[in-house]
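seq:
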Amino acid sequence: MSDELQVSALNSSQPANQEESNFNLKPPYQTPKGVHDILPADHEYYTFIKKVVRHRMRQAGFKRIATPIFEYTDVFVRSIGDATDIVDKEMYTFLDKKGRSLTLKPEGTAGVVRSFIQNGMNQLPQPVELYYIEPHFRYDRPQKGRYRQFWQYGFEIIGELDPALDAQAIFLANKINEDLGIDKLFKIQLNTIGSLEDRKKYTQALRDYYYGKERNLCEHCRDRLTKNPLRLLDCKNEDCMILAQLAPKMNDYLSPESKEYYNDVKEYLAELDIDFVENPTLVRGLDYYTNTVFEFWDAHDGAQNAIGGGGRYDGLIEIMGGQPTPAVGFAAGIERIIANMKREKIRVPSKDDVHVFVAQLGKEAKKKCLKLIYEMRESGIKTIGALGMGSIKQQLKLADKFNAPYTLIMGITEVREGTIIIRNMTKGSQEIVKFDNAIEEVIKKIGEKNLDKYSPGEVMY
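struct:
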């Protein structure tokens, strides 16, 4: 390993890796544990999800932002909190050539907030509404729908303190789930963790409650008791969950203002016909949250198969060095969404289907077909050209494998007569048309509405 670039999980106490300790790799190589290739079939899901997210975000006036893959480590330590599992165990942190500590981003909000401050976005009309669709990195235990490199989409509403914005964030997230066909699979869990002052009082109450019960806690929760008692309510260990159910409730330590704010959020959600479940143990895994928190839990598996969540983080921008600025946001895991879409056998529209396969025989036919293939693509006809040395029979078999509905066939006779054959691959029928009319005839068959045409100025990515 280079002494110029040392990558590790920050503060990890595990040996330098028992699961991947064999560095004497030989071909054929495989991906490291916890990462995976996104193959063409899965890219259709990613493309569809991105399209749905972009559509809903643009409708709501959000602008897209992209922050760097890595940031100075302190950006995440200060924002996420050094007592969280992410900072304590899961960050990919390394030193650059000048010894500066950098971290691959484990979540999106911290980078967006850093950018908000650095680029003076407080001077823009408020609230500033931003969204992102990006990869993130956590040294987590790989499991279904959870990877060490994973994609999230998320959005932030920065600059206004209004319970209606909290309701809007939940509504937007739910609307995207509706568009993806998975909204019925999840229940919205809702809670408030109050203001910073409320949390201080509640944190002390939790410490008092757990005093003398330490031996009943898991190893992680014994550590959380001193660093971040709120996380005790979020543990999935069975014994810890039983204790959490009997622990003091946040509602008893909320100020009148916090209670009013939370009630307003619930009223707005009711007005929007959004169903939710009040969950007093929901705290979220990041330190920067205040007041409203929410998650989308699997209707059957609960938090074990949650796809995303968010909440209000009114103190974060000040912690990061900016002026006090309220904000609320949401993020969801794209791989987890895809896993649920596949589980429900939800098919997504594909624009990758081929319209036409071009088969040719002989050098002169190949020369003619080269230009024809280009012109058909420019006309919006998705075209694959077989320009190898195979026979027409072999090329037709290849056209079947590509599921092309039509094949254009050109041989020596067609070159001489200025014609080309259009073969219907489904029916097995074919007709001869003038070579110069081939594009026009193909468009009639596949239909104008199915063409994949654009001008460079209209490309949407």
